[in-house]
Amino acid sequence: MSLLKKEKKVELVQLNVRLDSEAADKLKRYAEFLESTQAYVMSQAIHYIVDRDREFQQFTEKQLAGMEPDPLADLLVRSPEKELADSVPGSPQRESEILPRTAKAAGK
Hints:
Layout: H1 21-34, H2 38-52, H3 54-65, H4 80-87, H5 95-105
Helix pairs in contact: 1-2
């Protein structure tokens, strides 16, 4: 029985890696043994290692704890005027500069 499961279809990200010739040969033969791709074998091997490495899991948890998102960030909404100003070169950069011009253009 193989240690890795058969391949499932997932979204792939292309990476360029270099392996020593012995590792590359083992990768190729193991992929043939599983009747899968070498990319699948590498992906599963990484998951296998990372999922069992408690020290790495603790490291990751500490990293993520320091990067918690601001709960108010999703509540911030930019005005359409600000969006337009940011997309037009030479436009004012603050909404306070946009609103008076808009009011003047409307005859106020």
